[in-house]
Amino acid sequence: MDGYWRSGQLIDHKEKVDQAVDAAKQQGQQVDKVLVWRRYPGQYHSKTPMVAGRDVYVDEVLKDYANKIVEPVQMDATAPLFLMYTSGTTAKPKGVQHGTAGYLAYVTGTSKYILDIKPDDIYWCMADIGWITGHSYIVYGPLSLGTSGVLYEGVPTYPDGGRPWRIAQRLGVNIFHTAPTAIRMLRKVGPNEPAKYNYHFKLMVTVGEPIEPEVWRWYYNIVGKKESVIVDTWWQTENGGFLCSTKPALDPMKPGSAGPGVPGIHPVIYDEEGKEVSKGTKAGNICIRNPWPGIMQTIWKDPDRFVKTYYEKYNKNPKSKKWQDWPYFAGDGAVQAEDGYFRILGRVDDVINVAGHRLGTKELESACLVVPEIAEAAVVPVADESRGRVPEVYVALKPGIQPSEKIEKDVVKELETLIGKIARPKSVRIVPDMPKTRSGKIMRRVLAAISNRMPVGDVTTLANPEVVEQIRVMVQGAGPVETTTNVAEDIKRFGQE
Protein backbone atom coordinates (compact mmCIF):
# COMPACT_ATOMS: atom_id res chain seq x y z
CA MET A 1 0.00 0.00 0.00
CA ASP A 2 1.28 3.47 -0.76
CA GLY A 3 -0.01 4.91 2.51
CA TYR A 4 -2.45 4.43 5.37
CA TRP A 5 -4.15 6.54 8.02
CA ARG A 6 -2.91 6.56 11.60
CA SER A 7 -3.86 9.14 14.25
CA GLY A 8 -4.98 11.63 11.62
CA GLN A 9 -1.92 11.35 9.39
CA LEU A 10 -1.50 9.57 6.07
CA ILE A 11 1.66 7.52 6.67
CA ASP A 12 4.06 6.82 3.79
CA HIS A 13 4.21 3.02 3.60
CA LYS A 14 5.94 2.63 0.23
CA GLU A 15 9.04 4.13 1.87
CA LYS A 16 9.22 1.10 4.21
CA VAL A 17 8.74 -1.32 1.33
CA ASP A 18 11.72 0.13 -0.54
CA GLN A 19 13.83 -0.20 2.61
CA ALA A 20 12.84 -3.86 2.88
CA VAL A 21 13.64 -4.51 -0.78
CA ASP A 22 17.07 -2.90 -0.33
CA ALA A 23 17.72 -5.00 2.78
CA ALA A 24 16.80 -8.17 0.86
CA LYS A 25 19.18 -7.23 -1.95
CA GLN A 26 22.02 -6.76 0.53
CA GLN A 27 21.36 -10.30 1.75
CA GLY A 28 21.44 -11.75 -1.75
CA GLN A 29 17.73 -11.80 -2.67
CA GLN A 30 16.67 -9.72 -5.65
CA VAL A 31 12.99 -8.70 -5.59
CA ASP A 32 11.62 -8.67 -9.13
CA LYS A 33 8.19 -7.08 -8.70
CA VAL A 34 6.48 -4.84 -6.17
CA LEU A 35 2.70 -4.55 -6.43
CA VAL A 36 1.46 -1.23 -5.03
CA TRP A 37 -2.13 -0.78 -3.88
CA ARG A 38 -3.21 2.84 -3.91
CA ARG A 39 -5.13 3.87 -0.80
CA TYR A 40 -7.21 6.21 -2.98
CA PRO A 41 -8.03 4.95 -6.52
CA GLY A 42 -5.95 6.68 -9.17
CA GLN A 43 -3.98 8.76 -6.64
CA TYR A 44 -0.44 8.00 -5.50
CA HIS A 45 0.21 9.41 -2.01
CA SER A 46 3.76 8.25 -1.28
CA LYS A 47 6.73 10.59 -1.55
CA THR A 48 8.79 7.56 -2.60
CA PRO A 49 8.88 7.30 -6.40
CA MET A 50 7.77 4.19 -8.27
CA VAL A 51 10.66 2.17 -9.75
CA ALA A 52 10.20 1.61 -13.47
CA GLY A 53 10.07 -2.05 -14.45
CA ARG A 54 9.77 -3.25 -10.86
CA ASP A 55 6.83 -1.39 -9.27
CA VAL A 56 3.31 -1.83 -10.65
CA TYR A 57 -0.05 -0.40 -9.56
CA VAL A 58 -2.35 -3.29 -8.64
CA ASP A 59 -5.49 -1.57 -9.94
CA GLU A 60 -3.92 -1.18 -13.39
CA VAL A 61 -3.02 -4.87 -13.80
CA LEU A 62 -6.12 -6.39 -12.20
CA LYS A 63 -8.19 -5.82 -15.34
CA ASP A 64 -5.84 -8.09 -17.26
CA TYR A 65 -6.83 -10.98 -15.00
CA ALA A 66 -10.59 -10.42 -14.76
CA ASN A 67 -12.66 -13.63 -15.04
CA LYS A 68 -9.60 -15.86 -15.14
CA ILE A 69 -9.73 -18.98 -13.00
CA VAL A 70 -6.54 -19.89 -11.19
CA GLU A 71 -6.64 -23.46 -9.93
CA PRO A 72 -5.39 -23.82 -6.35
CA VAL A 73 -2.16 -25.69 -5.90
CA GLN A 74 -2.50 -28.83 -3.79
CA MET A 75 -0.06 -28.77 -0.88
CA ASP A 76 1.19 -31.49 1.43
CA ALA A 77 -0.38 -31.31 4.90
CA THR A 78 3.03 -30.62 6.46
CA ALA A 79 4.19 -28.08 3.87
CA PRO A 80 5.40 -24.78 5.43
CA LEU A 81 2.60 -22.23 5.50
CA PHE A 82 4.21 -19.01 6.77
CA LEU A 83 7.08 -17.61 8.80
CA MET A 84 6.66 -15.11 11.61
CA TYR A 85 9.63 -13.59 13.37
CA THR A 86 9.62 -13.16 17.12
CA SER A 87 12.16 -11.84 19.58
CA GLY A 88 14.42 -14.10 21.59
CA THR A 89 17.15 -13.93 24.19
CA THR A 90 19.68 -13.09 21.50
CA ALA A 91 19.66 -10.21 19.05
CA LYS A 92 18.74 -12.53 16.18
CA PRO A 93 14.94 -12.92 15.81
CA LYS A 94 13.50 -16.41 15.47
CA GLY A 95 11.71 -17.34 12.24
CA VAL A 96 8.74 -19.34 13.58
CA GLN A 97 7.59 -21.78 10.88
CA HIS A 98 3.98 -22.98 10.88
CA GLY A 99 2.58 -25.82 8.77
CA THR A 100 -0.39 -25.99 6.43
CA ALA A 101 -2.88 -28.48 7.91
CA GLY A 102 -2.01 -28.45 11.61
CA TYR A 103 -2.23 -24.67 11.90
CA LEU A 104 -5.59 -24.49 10.09
CA ALA A 105 -7.04 -27.33 12.16
CA TYR A 106 -5.99 -25.78 15.44
CA VAL A 107 -7.16 -22.22 14.84
CA THR A 108 -10.47 -23.53 13.49
CA GLY A 109 -11.04 -25.68 16.56
CA THR A 110 -10.10 -23.02 19.09
CA SER A 111 -12.16 -20.38 17.25
CA LYS A 112 -15.18 -22.65 17.44
CA TYR A 113 -14.91 -23.85 21.02
CA ILE A 114 -13.20 -20.96 22.82
CA LEU A 115 -14.41 -17.94 20.82
CA ASP A 116 -17.84 -19.52 20.21
CA ILE A 117 -17.81 -18.16 16.66
CA LYS A 118 -20.84 -19.00 14.50
CA PRO A 119 -21.62 -17.99 10.90
CA ASP A 120 -24.21 -15.40 11.95
CA ASP A 121 -21.91 -13.61 14.42
CA ILE A 122 -20.28 -10.24 13.76
CA TYR A 123 -16.76 -10.72 15.06
CA TRP A 124 -14.10 -8.08 15.62
CA CYS A 125 -10.55 -8.94 16.57
CA MET A 126 -9.01 -5.51 17.16
CA ALA A 127 -5.42 -6.58 16.57
CA ASP A 128 -2.70 -6.23 13.95
CA ILE A 129 -3.06 -8.73 11.09
CA GLY A 130 0.73 -8.93 10.97
CA TRP A 131 0.80 -10.27 14.54
CA ILE A 132 0.14 -13.96 15.22
CA THR A 133 -3.20 -13.06 16.83
CA GLY A 134 -4.21 -11.40 13.57
CA HIS A 135 -3.08 -14.34 11.46
CA SER A 136 -4.91 -16.87 13.62
CA TYR A 137 -7.96 -15.00 14.83
CA ILE A 138 -8.65 -12.31 12.23
CA VAL A 139 -7.97 -14.42 9.15
CA TYR A 140 -7.76 -18.20 9.49
CA GLY A 141 -10.08 -19.23 12.31
CA PRO A 142 -13.06 -16.92 11.70
CA LEU A 143 -13.00 -17.32 7.90
CA SER A 144 -12.80 -21.12 8.16
CA LEU A 145 -16.03 -20.97 10.18
CA GLY A 146 -17.75 -18.63 7.72
CA THR A 147 -18.28 -15.69 10.05
CA SER A 148 -18.29 -11.97 9.22
CA GLY A 149 -15.22 -10.12 10.47
CA VAL A 150 -14.54 -6.43 11.07
CA LEU A 151 -11.33 -4.76 9.85
CA TYR A 152 -10.43 -1.17 10.69
CA GLU A 153 -7.67 1.31 9.91
CA GLY A 154 -5.64 3.38 12.36
CA VAL A 155 -5.64 3.30 16.15
CA PRO A 156 -8.60 2.70 18.48
CA THR A 157 -8.10 5.94 20.44
CA TYR A 158 -8.23 8.39 17.52
CA PRO A 159 -10.05 10.72 17.24
CA ASP A 160 -11.19 9.75 20.75
CA GLY A 161 -11.63 6.79 23.08
CA GLY A 162 -15.17 6.15 21.89
CA ARG A 163 -14.16 4.97 18.43
CA PRO A 164 -14.26 1.18 19.08
CA TRP A 165 -17.66 1.39 20.74
CA ARG A 166 -19.11 3.47 17.87
CA ILE A 167 -17.85 0.87 15.40
CA ALA A 168 -19.31 -1.94 17.52
CA GLN A 169 -22.69 -0.19 17.66
CA ARG A 170 -22.79 0.66 13.95
CA LEU A 171 -21.84 -2.81 12.74
CA GLY A 172 -23.60 -4.89 15.41
CA VAL A 173 -20.43 -6.52 16.73
CA ASN A 174 -21.19 -9.24 19.28
CA ILE A 175 -17.73 -10.81 19.80
CA PHE A 176 -14.85 -8.48 20.68
CA HIS A 177 -11.20 -9.55 20.85
CA THR A 178 -8.25 -7.37 21.87
CA ALA A 179 -5.13 -7.12 24.06
CA PRO A 180 -4.65 -5.75 27.61
CA THR A 181 -2.48 -2.98 26.13
CA ALA A 182 -5.47 -1.68 24.17
CA ILE A 183 -7.84 -2.18 27.10
CA ARG A 184 -5.60 -0.16 29.42
CA MET A 185 -5.24 2.56 26.78
CA LEU A 186 -9.01 2.82 26.28
CA ARG A 187 -9.58 2.80 30.05
CA LYS A 188 -7.13 5.68 30.36
CA VAL A 189 -8.46 7.96 27.60
CA GLY A 190 -12.17 7.18 27.83
CA PRO A 191 -13.14 5.35 31.02
CA ASN A 192 -16.84 6.15 30.60
CA GLU A 193 -17.10 6.06 26.80
CA PRO A 194 -18.61 2.53 26.47
CA ALA A 195 -21.74 3.60 28.35
CA LYS A 196 -22.58 6.09 25.59
CA TYR A 197 -23.12 3.42 22.92
CA ASN A 198 -25.76 0.77 22.38
CA TYR A 199 -23.78 -2.35 21.55
CA HIS A 200 -23.97 -5.77 23.20
CA PHE A 201 -21.15 -8.30 23.29
CA LYS A 202 -21.84 -11.95 24.09
CA LEU A 203 -18.13 -12.67 24.45
CA MET A 204 -14.95 -10.64 24.93
CA VAL A 205 -11.38 -11.88 24.61
CA THR A 206 -8.11 -10.67 26.09
CA VAL A 207 -4.82 -11.90 24.64
CA GLY A 208 -1.12 -11.17 24.40
CA GLU A 209 -0.04 -10.55 27.99
CA PRO A 210 -1.35 -11.00 31.53
CA ILE A 211 -4.23 -8.65 32.32
CA GLU A 212 -4.31 -6.92 35.70
CA PRO A 213 -7.44 -7.74 37.78
CA GLU A 214 -8.44 -4.06 38.03
CA VAL A 215 -8.29 -3.69 34.26
CA TRP A 216 -10.19 -6.99 33.85
CA ARG A 217 -12.98 -5.63 36.05
CA TRP A 218 -13.27 -2.45 33.96
CA TYR A 219 -13.40 -4.61 30.83
CA TYR A 220 -16.17 -6.74 32.33
CA ASN A 221 -18.22 -4.07 34.10
CA ILE A 222 -17.91 -1.12 31.71
CA VAL A 223 -17.04 -2.50 28.27
CA GLY A 224 -19.00 -5.73 28.65
CA LYS A 225 -21.82 -4.05 30.61
CA LYS A 226 -21.76 -7.02 33.03
CA GLU A 227 -23.47 -9.17 30.40
CA SER A 228 -20.53 -10.50 28.37
CA VAL A 229 -18.39 -13.54 29.06
CA ILE A 230 -14.62 -12.87 29.16
CA VAL A 231 -12.10 -15.44 27.97
CA ASP A 232 -8.59 -14.53 29.10
CA THR A 233 -6.36 -16.50 26.77
CA TRP A 234 -2.69 -17.45 26.98
CA TRP A 235 -0.59 -18.61 24.05
CA GLN A 236 2.37 -17.54 21.92
CA THR A 237 3.50 -16.96 18.34
CA GLU A 238 5.02 -20.42 18.40
CA ASN A 239 1.77 -22.17 19.43
CA GLY A 240 -0.64 -21.43 16.57
CA GLY A 241 -3.60 -20.89 18.91
CA PHE A 242 -4.86 -20.75 22.50
CA LEU A 243 -3.19 -22.95 25.13
CA CYS A 244 -5.00 -21.83 28.30
CA SER A 245 -8.44 -20.28 28.58
CA THR A 246 -11.76 -20.73 30.27
CA LYS A 247 -14.44 -22.24 28.05
CA PRO A 248 -17.26 -19.69 27.67
CA ALA A 249 -20.37 -20.46 29.74
CA LEU A 250 -18.78 -23.68 31.04
CA ASP A 251 -15.85 -22.56 33.22
CA PRO A 252 -16.16 -19.80 35.84
CA MET A 253 -14.31 -16.57 35.03
CA LYS A 254 -11.48 -15.44 37.30
CA PRO A 255 -9.98 -11.92 36.98
CA GLY A 256 -6.34 -12.01 35.95
CA SER A 257 -6.25 -15.78 35.41
CA ALA A 258 -5.88 -17.50 32.04
CA GLY A 259 -7.80 -20.51 33.31
CA PRO A 260 -7.10 -24.21 32.63
CA GLY A 261 -5.56 -25.78 29.54
CA VAL A 262 -7.93 -25.76 26.57
CA PRO A 263 -9.21 -29.16 25.36
CA GLY A 264 -6.26 -31.26 24.21
CA ILE A 265 -3.62 -29.18 26.00
CA HIS A 266 -2.04 -30.48 29.21
CA PRO A 267 0.04 -27.80 30.97
CA VAL A 268 2.40 -28.49 33.84
CA ILE A 269 4.63 -26.27 36.00
CA TYR A 270 8.23 -27.35 36.60
CA ASP A 271 10.84 -25.81 38.86
CA GLU A 272 14.39 -25.16 37.69
CA GLU A 273 15.42 -28.73 38.57
CA GLY A 274 12.63 -30.26 36.48
CA LYS A 275 10.44 -31.25 39.43
CA GLU A 276 6.69 -30.76 39.03
CA VAL A 277 5.29 -27.91 41.14
CA SER A 278 2.03 -28.85 42.85
CA LYS A 279 -1.12 -26.74 42.79
CA GLY A 280 -1.49 -23.83 45.14
CA THR A 281 2.18 -23.61 46.05
CA LYS A 282 4.94 -21.66 44.34
CA ALA A 283 5.61 -20.25 40.89
CA GLY A 284 7.62 -22.05 38.23
CA ASN A 285 8.00 -22.49 34.50
CA ILE A 286 4.85 -23.41 32.61
CA CYS A 287 5.32 -26.18 30.05
CA ILE A 288 3.04 -28.29 27.84
CA ARG A 289 3.39 -32.04 28.29
CA ASN A 290 2.04 -33.05 24.88
CA PRO A 291 2.31 -32.04 21.20
CA TRP A 292 -0.74 -30.48 19.47
CA PRO A 293 -1.70 -29.60 15.86
CA GLY A 294 -0.89 -25.87 16.01
CA ILE A 295 2.63 -26.11 17.43
CA MET A 296 5.36 -24.61 15.24
CA GLN A 297 7.32 -27.00 13.03
CA THR A 298 10.76 -25.51 13.59
CA ILE A 299 12.77 -22.29 13.57
CA TRP A 300 13.43 -21.47 9.93
CA LYS A 301 16.85 -22.79 8.91
CA ASP A 302 17.87 -23.30 12.54
CA PRO A 303 16.57 -26.65 13.88
CA ASP A 304 19.24 -26.80 16.59
CA ARG A 305 18.07 -23.50 18.05
CA PHE A 306 14.49 -24.80 17.88
CA VAL A 307 15.37 -27.78 20.10
CA LYS A 308 17.59 -25.73 22.40
CA THR A 309 15.03 -22.95 22.94
CA TYR A 310 11.85 -24.97 23.42
CA TYR A 311 12.67 -28.56 24.32
CA GLU A 312 16.18 -29.01 25.69
CA LYS A 313 15.57 -27.61 29.17
CA TYR A 314 13.35 -30.43 30.46
CA ASN A 315 14.37 -33.29 28.17
CA LYS A 316 16.14 -36.09 30.03
CA ASN A 317 17.05 -38.23 27.00
CA PRO A 318 18.08 -36.44 23.78
CA LYS A 319 17.87 -39.73 21.84
CA SER A 320 14.29 -40.46 22.86
CA LYS A 321 11.58 -40.44 20.18
CA LYS A 322 8.74 -40.56 22.70
CA TRP A 323 6.80 -37.30 22.91
CA GLN A 324 6.45 -37.81 26.66
CA ASP A 325 10.17 -37.06 27.01
CA TRP A 326 9.95 -33.69 25.21
CA PRO A 327 7.78 -31.21 27.17
CA TYR A 328 7.46 -27.81 25.49
CA PHE A 329 9.14 -25.02 27.51
CA ALA A 330 7.17 -21.82 26.99
CA GLY A 331 9.61 -19.44 28.69
CA ASP A 332 6.81 -17.99 30.83
CA GLY A 333 6.51 -18.09 34.59
CA ALA A 334 3.18 -19.16 36.10
CA VAL A 335 1.39 -20.32 39.22
CA GLN A 336 -1.42 -22.86 39.35
CA ALA A 337 -4.18 -22.33 41.87
CA GLU A 338 -5.94 -25.11 43.77
CA ASP A 339 -8.81 -24.89 41.27
CA GLY A 340 -6.44 -25.79 38.43
CA TYR A 341 -6.43 -22.33 36.86
CA PHE A 342 -3.11 -20.91 35.68
CA ARG A 343 -2.00 -17.33 36.23
CA ILE A 344 0.74 -16.28 33.86
CA LEU A 345 3.40 -14.08 35.45
CA GLY A 346 5.08 -12.95 32.24
CA ARG A 347 8.37 -13.99 30.71
CA VAL A 348 10.67 -15.92 32.98
CA ASP A 349 13.16 -13.10 32.55
CA ASP A 350 10.60 -10.49 33.64
CA VAL A 351 11.35 -11.28 37.26
CA ILE A 352 13.16 -9.13 39.81
CA ASN A 353 15.19 -11.06 42.34
CA VAL A 354 14.99 -9.02 45.55
CA ALA A 355 17.13 -10.45 48.34
CA GLY A 356 16.43 -13.95 47.07
CA HIS A 357 12.70 -13.35 46.53
CA ARG A 358 11.46 -13.60 42.94
CA LEU A 359 8.91 -10.85 42.22
CA GLY A 360 7.04 -10.94 38.92
CA THR A 361 6.80 -7.48 37.40
CA LYS A 362 3.22 -8.16 36.29
CA GLU A 363 2.19 -8.91 39.87
CA LEU A 364 3.73 -5.64 41.03
CA GLU A 365 2.09 -3.66 38.22
CA SER A 366 -1.30 -5.21 39.01
CA ALA A 367 -0.97 -4.04 42.62
CA CYS A 368 -0.17 -0.49 41.46
CA LEU A 369 -3.31 -0.39 39.31
CA VAL A 370 -5.50 -0.97 42.36
CA VAL A 371 -4.86 2.71 43.20
CA PRO A 372 -7.88 4.36 41.49
CA GLU A 373 -6.00 7.40 40.09
CA ILE A 374 -3.55 5.25 38.09
CA ALA A 375 -4.08 4.38 34.44
CA GLU A 376 -0.82 2.57 33.64
CA ALA A 377 2.08 1.14 35.60
CA ALA A 378 5.51 -0.22 34.71
CA VAL A 379 7.98 -1.82 37.11
CA VAL A 380 11.69 -2.20 36.33
CA PRO A 381 14.73 -3.41 38.31
CA VAL A 382 17.18 -0.91 39.76
CA ALA A 383 20.49 -1.76 41.44
CA ASP A 384 20.58 -1.66 45.24
CA GLU A 385 23.64 -2.12 47.43
CA SER A 386 21.90 -4.17 50.11
CA ARG A 387 19.28 -6.15 48.20
CA GLY A 388 20.91 -6.54 44.78
CA ARG A 389 17.88 -5.42 42.82
CA VAL A 390 14.77 -3.58 43.92
CA PRO A 391 11.66 -2.53 42.00
CA GLU A 392 11.29 0.99 40.69
CA VAL A 393 7.76 2.01 39.81
CA TYR A 394 6.60 4.29 37.01
CA VAL A 395 2.94 5.29 36.86
CA ALA A 396 0.82 7.40 34.51
CA LEU A 397 -2.37 8.96 35.86
CA LYS A 398 -5.89 9.06 34.46
CA PRO A 399 -6.91 12.25 32.60
CA GLY A 400 -7.50 15.23 34.87
CA ILE A 401 -5.68 13.76 37.87
CA GLN A 402 -2.83 15.83 39.26
CA PRO A 403 0.36 14.20 40.62
CA SER A 404 0.62 14.16 44.40
CA GLU A 405 2.68 12.67 47.18
CA LYS A 406 -0.46 10.92 48.43
CA ILE A 407 -0.74 8.90 45.21
CA GLU A 408 2.90 7.83 45.53
CA LYS A 409 2.30 6.72 49.12
CA ASP A 410 -0.87 4.84 48.11
CA VAL A 411 1.15 2.89 45.52
CA VAL A 412 3.70 1.87 48.15
CA LYS A 413 0.90 0.89 50.53
CA GLU A 414 -0.81 -1.36 47.97
CA LEU A 415 2.49 -3.04 47.06
CA GLU A 416 3.23 -3.79 50.72
CA THR A 417 -0.33 -4.95 51.39
CA LEU A 418 -0.86 -7.13 48.30
CA ILE A 419 2.68 -8.45 47.78
CA GLY A 420 4.56 -7.84 51.03
CA LYS A 421 7.18 -5.55 52.53
CA ILE A 422 9.77 -7.13 50.24
CA ALA A 423 8.02 -5.39 47.31
CA ARG A 424 8.56 -1.87 48.67
CA PRO A 425 9.91 0.11 45.69
CA LYS A 426 13.00 2.29 45.70
CA SER A 427 10.79 5.09 44.39
CA VAL A 428 7.50 5.80 42.65
CA ARG A 429 7.77 8.04 39.60
CA ILE A 430 4.65 9.76 38.30
CA VAL A 431 5.30 10.42 34.59
CA PRO A 432 3.31 12.31 31.94
CA ASP A 433 3.15 9.20 29.72
CA MET A 434 4.93 5.88 29.25
CA PRO A 435 7.43 5.42 26.40
CA LYS A 436 5.60 3.13 23.98
CA THR A 437 6.04 1.30 20.72
CA ARG A 438 3.66 2.15 17.90
CA SER A 439 1.60 -0.90 18.83
CA GLY A 440 1.16 0.52 22.35
CA LYS A 441 3.56 -1.68 24.33
CA ILE A 442 5.34 0.06 27.18
CA MET A 443 9.11 0.03 26.59
CA ARG A 444 10.29 -1.09 30.02
CA ARG A 445 13.83 -1.38 28.66
CA VAL A 446 13.95 2.41 28.28
CA LEU A 447 12.65 2.98 31.79
CA ALA A 448 15.12 0.45 33.22
CA ALA A 449 17.97 2.23 31.44
CA ILE A 450 16.89 5.60 32.88
CA SER A 451 16.57 4.19 36.41
CA ASN A 452 20.03 2.64 36.24
CA ARG A 453 21.66 5.64 34.55
CA MET A 454 22.46 3.78 31.38
CA PRO A 455 22.07 5.04 27.80
CA VAL A 456 18.50 4.57 26.57
CA GLY A 457 19.60 3.64 23.04
CA ASP A 458 17.70 4.48 19.88
CA VAL A 459 14.16 5.66 20.69
CA THR A 460 13.29 7.24 17.34
CA THR A 461 10.92 4.39 16.43
CA LEU A 462 8.76 4.92 19.53
CA ALA A 463 5.31 6.41 19.18
CA ASN A 464 6.25 9.19 21.65
CA PRO A 465 10.06 9.55 21.73
CA GLU A 466 9.86 13.04 23.24
CA VAL A 467 8.62 11.67 26.57
CA VAL A 468 11.86 9.72 27.09
CA GLU A 469 13.94 12.85 27.69
CA GLN A 470 11.25 14.30 29.96
CA ILE A 471 11.41 11.20 32.14
CA ARG A 472 15.21 11.09 32.06
CA VAL A 473 15.48 14.67 33.31
CA MET A 474 12.85 13.95 35.96
CA VAL A 475 14.84 10.95 37.25
CA GLN A 476 18.46 11.92 36.57
CA GLY A 477 18.38 15.70 36.43
CA ALA A 478 19.37 17.88 33.48
CA GLY A 479 23.02 16.78 33.32
CA PRO A 480 24.57 14.19 31.00
CA VAL A 481 23.94 10.44 31.35
CA GLU A 482 26.21 8.94 34.01
CA THR A 483 26.50 5.16 34.22
CA THR A 484 26.89 4.14 37.84
CA THR A 485 25.57 0.58 37.94
CA ASN A 486 26.23 -2.69 36.23
CA VAL A 487 22.83 -4.13 35.34
CA ALA A 488 23.33 -4.80 31.65
CA GLU A 489 21.73 -8.25 31.89
CA ASP A 490 18.55 -6.81 33.43
CA ILE A 491 18.33 -4.18 30.72
CA LYS A 492 18.80 -6.81 28.04
CA ARG A 493 16.08 -8.99 29.54
CA PHE A 494 13.61 -6.13 29.75
CA GLY A 495 14.35 -5.24 26.11
CA GLN A 496 13.30 -8.53 24.53
CA GLU A 497 9.83 -7.36 23.53
Characteristics:
497 residues; GMP Synthetase, Chain A, domain 3; 4-stranded antiparallel beta sheet; 21 strands; 26% helix; 21% strand; globular
Your description of this structure?
The chain has 497 residues and is α/β, with parallel strands linked by helices. Among the domains are: 3-65, no CATH class; 115-232, 3-Layer(aba) Sandwich (Rossmann fold); 349-494, 2-Layer Sandwich (GMP Synthetase, Chain A, domain 3), CATH 3.30.300.30. It is built from 13 helices and 21 strands. The chain has a 5-stranded parallel sheet. It has a 4-stranded antiparallel sheet with strand order 12-13-15-16. Helix 3 crosses helix 4, helix 6 packs across helix 7 (213-223) and helix 11 packs antiparallel against helix 13.
Question: How would the blueprint of this fold be written?
Answer:
Layout: E1 3-6, E2 9-12, H1 14-26, E3 34-36, E4 55-57, H2 58-62, E5 80-86, E6 94-99, H3 100-113, E7 122-125, H4 132-144, E8 148-149, H5 163-171, E9 175-178, H6 180-189, E10 203-206, H7 213-223, E11 229-232, E12 267-270, E13 284-288, E14 298-299, H8 303-310, E15 328-336, E16 342-347, E17 351-354, E18 357-360, H9 361-368, E19 374-384, E20 388-397, H10 405-418, E21 428-430, H11 444-451, H12 466-476, H13 488-494
Parallel strand pairs: 3-4, 7-8, 7-9, 9-10, 10-11, 20-21
Antiparallel strand pairs: 1-2, 5-6, 6-14, 12-13, 13-15, 15-16, 17-18, 19-20
Helix pairs in contact: 3-4, 6-7, 11-12, 11-13
